[in-house]
Amino acid sequence: MLIAGLVLAGIAALIHVYIFYLESFAWTDRKTLATFGMTAQQAEAMRPMALNQGYYNLFLAIITVVGIVLASVGSTAVGAALVFAGAGSMAAAAVVLVVSDPSKRSAALKQGAAPLLGVIALAVGLLV
């Protein structure tokens, strides 16, 4: 289960790197506008917030990847702590998204399922 948790956390990190790209570099592209259900005017007004949010997602991914690497090379306690912090924050953010806007259930599921399952599998793997 430990390996499954690290793999799921790795998938979550990759998803969040992609979200970083969308929010920080492709924010006003037609495909991104459709993904987030925005007009070009809305996207332009939200650009500074999206840039900040994108980097937040990148930093969570980095924390998670560093944790995966450390856990994989034998620093299990420190690595797991970082994975719990990074992936746990990703899962918590997905909960905040769906609670604040129930119409965003699909987005919350896409960004929150892998980190939540990773955290659960990692916890089980550490307890066994």
UniProtKB/TrEMBL annotation:
<keyword id="KW-1133">Transmembrane helix</keyword>
<keyword id="KW-0812">Transmembrane</keyword>
<dbReference type="Pfam" id="PF06993">
    <property type="entry name" value="DUF1304"/>
</dbReference>
<keyword id="KW-0472">Membrane</keyword>
<feature type="transmembrane region" description="Helical">
    <location>
        <begin position="80"/>
        <end position="100"/>
    </location>
</feature>
<feature type="transmembrane region" description="Helical">
    <location>
        <begin position="55"/>
        <end position="74"/>
    </location>
</feature>
<feature type="transmembrane region" description="Helical">
    <location>
        <begin position="6"/>
        <end position="22"/>
    </location>
</feature>
<dbReference type="InterPro" id="IPR009732">
    <property type="entry name" value="DUF1304"/>
</dbReference>
<protein>
    <recommendedName>
        <fullName>DUF1304 domain-containing protein</fullName>
    </recommendedName>
</protein>
